[in-house]
Amino acid sequence: MICKKEKKLLGICLVFLFSMGFSCFANDFKVWIAPRYTLKNGGFKQDVMLEASGGDKIQTSQTFDEDFLSYIGLGAGFGWRFILLDCNFNWGIPKSMGTMTMNRYNYGNQDIIYEHDDFETSLDPQNFDFNSRLCFDIPIIQDWLNVRPFFAFSYTFAKESASFESGRRGYSENYDYRQEKHSDKYLWDMNTFAIENGKDVWFKRELYNFNLGAEIEGTFFNHFFLNVQAQIAPVTFLNSIYYNGTGTYYLDMYKSVFSFWYWSVGIGGGARFGKNNSFEAGINWLYNAMASRDGDSYQSTEEKSNYSKYTDGTYARTEYSSWQLTIYGKYTFTFGPTHTQKSRPAREKKEKTPKVRNGKVKVKTYD
Description:
The chain is mainly beta. It is 7% helix and 63% strand.
């Protein structure tokens, strides 16, 4: 669910980035395209918390494993002198993506009853992410070492869904047996889960990041390069909606302003060949993380409207980490006066002067 303020913020960011780029189309610029493939692996945790006098308690804990998800994408960008703007679009390939684990804690006068559900999840074909970056390419050592501070924006939409019929439910009165390795201690009921709801469960999230970062790149033997980068997000918004087939939608909203909740580090390398090093092939690895953070919880009987905030002390908590490996090819078109060849003036024909021998002009005749 995207709020009006967030839509406005997203629009302002995109207009700013693209207007900066188009203003660079003066005399000398370059344009590039870059098809790409990304493999992502990680997971995130979502808890429903309850404020209590003796310490806040977990009501429900959900863990989503994202096992080796594939994305295909296309990058494009342009630059003018030391200013570079690039954008990347990535689309998820639907697949069985991993396991979603749901844990419930029922607190009563007796011992805590621990309830555990796990089932296979699948990646929704709508999964998509977009990121753009405005860089300033500063040469430190000419043709060898460059530093690129940058501003960046990223948007991620992800949806995971699972069928109750593919899962199982277990009970335990011992909290210490909550780990999967103790699953033999559970009292498993394979039918209750499917009969209770009979519908699919899904989880959807939207993440907006406004990042600051820097990249350092070294070039070797005129063709090979290696770079490292790091970035943090002064501003982050995360909205997630959970639906479990009961007719109620649960919305959790998180906001981070200058608390640097999200961060990432990466390393990459590759080679550039061809005229003006116009062709580039490379690989990069990136690690992303969001530390544990609390947010507000809402509920509604409609997915897109009429959400009311919990007033009984219920709130949300989440954390996330993943790594991704990207392989890409890139071709750069370079334009401008530095690459225009001046036309050579036409060579004037010299008139042949007749040869003179012994005071006589020798003229060739042809029969």
